[in-house]
Amino acid sequence: MSDVLTKSAARNIFYGGTAFFFIIFVGLVAHSVSTVNAMNESHPVTPSVAAGKHIWERHACVDCHTIMGEGAYFAPELGNVWVRFGGREDADSAREALKAWMKGQPSGIEGRRQMPKFDITDTELDELVDFLKWTSEVNTQNWPPKVSG
Amino acid sequence: MKYESQKVALYYFAGALGLFVAQVLFGVVLGTIVVVPNFLSELLPFNIARMIHTNALIVWLLMGFFGCAYYLIPEEAETELHSPKLAIVQFWLFLFGAAAAVIGYLFRIHEGREFLEQPLWIKLAIVVVALMFLYNVTLTVLKGRKTAITNVLLLGLWGIAVFFLFSLYNPSNLILDKVFWWWVVHLWVEGVWELVMAAVLAFLMIKMTGVDREVVEKWLYVIVGLALFSGILGTGHHYYWIGMPAYWQWIGSVFSTLEVAPFFAMVIFTFMMVWKGGRTHPNKAALLWSLGCSVFAFFGAGVWGFLHTLAPINYVTHGTQVTAAHGHLAFYGAYVMLNIAMFTYAMPNILKREPYNQVLNMWGFWITSSGVTFMTFALTFAGVVQSHLQRVMGMNFMEVQDALGLFYWMRLGAGIATLVGVVLIVWSLAVPGKARQAGRVAAQPAE
Fold first, then answer.
1. What is the predicted pLDDT for the residue at A2?
2. What is the CA angle B418-B420-B421, rounded to 5?
């Protein structure tokens, strides 16, 4: 590459190419964001869902669990936990089961991974479940492949 | 070392090494919790230990980058640093922010987004620290000689600060949250951090091999070009399953496959320069780390990244231990080894010692590298088994985890070996070698 490419040519290709690819990237993300916003019309983030997301963050759930595959891989995937608990068939039972599950932690069972005890009120638990339900309804291109998450 | 102000780098190197030990120590704690789940479960739950482990890594790598820049820039720009005092103030502020964050985490004070757990005021303090740093190094470059290395390094460092600003944006829509979270995480480690990496490697090659600057700098532009042309649109491989349109599966698959290219180019580059230079530099340990960095980055970031980046494969492996395997080897190869290469090269110069404790440092290299490699294999096998049982057979998460116990024990063993290696590295850098001490004793009577 000694004669074919000079240093200043390499530099110009670097700066020009970077600008080119960055502009394409920004354009594509802008388009994607507009589709996400369009989805928001039929599938709105209600105040309760937003509050639930905040509770999710306050307890750093993502540092054990995954959500849509992102997180700490230590505890089960929760992006589709609503589906796994049968929320599509029987929403009321799924909600009660999820809330009871969270209230029952930590299990204290020897040799089993422990979920900490979080001080979450009943209203907050409902908001958290609303957030998980909302998340399970996102079009994830059919991911995860199995309901096991 | 030619300029007095390069010495400020020592603060950053020392701080970084301290946090490196803490990071690996918390890694061992986490590895223990995985196999003995009741260990510390009340006192230090997994999620808190995990945020300390990952944050300590990010902070010490950044602290190392700052130190590398403070050492490299005066020498490249051929002028003293604009303000060594400001650099020292910046160091203490950064260290204080990091310590405050960790203590806060222990009391459950955090923002709860992965890697960006820092409370808002610490995020803002990080922005202030970054501005102090950028002001200092940019003015130094502006008044001095401008080289390709300083150009690329500054672009990388400015990019780090600019993309960090996206950490302040947290929309209530989880999809949008994830989309722009990756603007920090991906555009850092698979974007602008690669500019820092290539620039520092180029500097080390010029210093240690004696190859002509023109040749090295041309390589540098080619490498960083490959990195950004592939890496920017490569962000698409994080947009497959988070509620984004399906076209990202094509864009992400194609461009992130090309992300292997810059890492391969770095291997060719470092080996060619060492071979062409034909000079035997006395600091063999620094050369070993530099070559090791390009090779391990190629395997960790390049090969292990490609392993699960194609959309149909990622559909099955996404969010399993395969990701954890890739994360560990990539961070170690690309950014840990880069920092240690620079520390090993620069610290003897700053401390006015002969390259010291070479053998111990190289033992550290081999033990740590073996530990991380073994850990990567254990996690990769765990991830493949997990992908099959959970994603193909549809077995329950915890049942699958119970089946992976053997791999997790092997990972813990590898983690302990890594910790031993890290202690050796830090020891070899901090403590003068025997040869040096003997030399001093022998030299004294003659004075």
1. 60
2. 65
Q: Which residue in this structure is represented by tokens 């509050």? A: A51
Q: Is A143 on the interface with B (CB under 8 A)?
A: yes
Task: Give the DSSP per-residue string, B134-161.
Answer: HHHHHHHHHHS---HHHHHHHHHHHHHH
- Reference B365, options B331, B341, B335, B329; nearest CA is B341
Which residue of B228, B241, B315 is in closest CB contact with A68?
B241
| DSSP 3-state of B39 | coil
**Measuring CA to CA, which residue among B177, B2, B190 is closest to residue A67?**
B177
The answer to whether the CB atoms of A143 and B240 lie below 8 A apart is: yes
Q: With beta carbons less than 8 A apart as the criterion, state whether B119 and B101 touch.
A: yes
Residue B2 phi, psi dihedral angles, 5° rounding: -110, -20
Place of tokens 């720009």: B77
Q: Is the pLDDT of residue A95 over 50?
A: yes
Best CA proximity match to B202, nearest among B136, B151, B157, B260: B151
Mean of the per-residue pLDDT values of chain A: 95
Could you tell me which of B385, B253, B241 has the C-alpha nearest to residue B315? B241
Are B257 and B239 within 8 A, CB to CB?
A: no
pTM: 0.95
The SS3 of residue A80 is: coil
Please answer yes or no on whether B50 and A74 come within 8 Å at the CB atom. Answer: yes
| Interacting residues of A69 by C-beta distance below 8 A, sequence separation 6+ | A77, A79, A143, A144, B241, B242, B318, B319
> CA angle, B226 as apex, B221 and B227 as ends, to 5°?
95
For an interface test with A, the pick among B185, B241, B316, B385 (most A C-beta atoms closer than 10 Å) comes out as B241
- Report which of B414, B374, B407 is spatially closest to residue B389, judged by C-alpha positions: B407
Residue B398: C-alpha distances to residues B202, B344, B402 (Å):
47, 43, 6
Write down the H helix ranges in B36-80.
46-77
Q: What letter represents residue A24's amino acid?
A: I
Helix (H) or strand (E) holding A71: strand A70-71
Which residues of chain B fall below pLDDT 50? 437-447
Closest by Cβ to B225, choosing from A14, A24, A50: A14
Is residue B240 a contact partner of residue B248, using CB atoms and an 8 Å limit?
A: yes
Contact: B243, A39; criterion CB under 8 Å: yes
Sign of CA dihedral B38, B39, B42, B45: negative
Given CA atoms B146, B148, B150, B154 in this order, what sign does their dihedral have?
positive
Tokens for A110, please give them: 């020897």
- The pLDDT, as a whole number, for residue A1 is 54
- List A residues 69-108 in contact with B (Cβ-Cβ < 8 A): 69-77, 106
Residue B110, beta-bridge partner list: none
**B248 in reach of chain A (CB within 8 A):** yes
d(CA B65, CA B336): 10
First-to-final CA distance of chain A: 49
Structure ipTM: 0.96
pLDDT tens-place string over residues A24-82? 999 999 999 999 999 888 899 999 999 999 999 999 999 999 999 999 999 999 999 99
